[in-house]
Design brief:
The protein is α+β, with helices and mostly antiparallel strands. A hairpin with a 5-residue loop joins strand 2 and strand 3. The radius of gyration is 25 Å and the shape is elongated.
């Protein structure tokens, strides 16, 4: 499979600081040519990501010699160890594992753990902002009014450990 990050005719060569020539990006798409079939696909790039389901449209005739390839069901994306996989998009959580960043609604998780408590963090996740003193008291009263599950529920949960 040949992957070209720019549609034909949509890039303009330019020189960068290290003397290499690179193409100036003019379109947020990825052009893929499946050499098994000769078909060409254009996939949208959104937030520097491609939806893996887009590759399911790339089908080839069934390979009778290797039926487990299931080529007729679309190409699969293999990412050992999920080293380059975004599993979801969230407006609540931001995670950058390479930089060691984890935040909830813009607040660093380390600050929430050391400077706020469980009730504040829970309120933040559910309502989108840290609670005022009054909101926190009301939220604690609401939580306290919820009946505790019966012992049998805890017994079932413990049976799985």
């Amino acid at each position: 499979m040949v992957i070209n990050s720019e549609p034909r005719g949509a890039s303009q060569p330019r020189s960068n600081n290290n003397g290499l020539v690179e193409n100036k990006k003019t379109n947020n798409t990825l052009r893929v040519v499946d050499n098994r079939t000769g078909k060409e696909y254009v996939l949208p790039i959104d937030k520097n990501s491609i939806n893996a389901m887009s590759f399911k449209q790339m089908k080839a005739p069934q390979n009778v010699d290797v039926p487990c390839d299931q080529t007729e069901y679309g190409i699969r994306v293999y990412d050992p160890g999920f080293g380059n996989t975004a599993v979801s998009e969230s407006t609540i959580t931001y995670n950058d594992g390479l930089k060691g960043v984890l935040s909830y609604r813009g607040f660093d998780i380390g600050d929430l753990v050391t400077k706020k408590g469980f009730i504040d963090t829970q309120y933040l996740l559910l309502w989108g902002h840290l609670p005022s003193s009054k909101e926190k008291e009301e939220w604690q009263r609401n939580l306290a009014s919820i009946p505790k599950p019966p012992k049998s529920v805890f017994d079932v949960i413990r049976s799985f450990s």
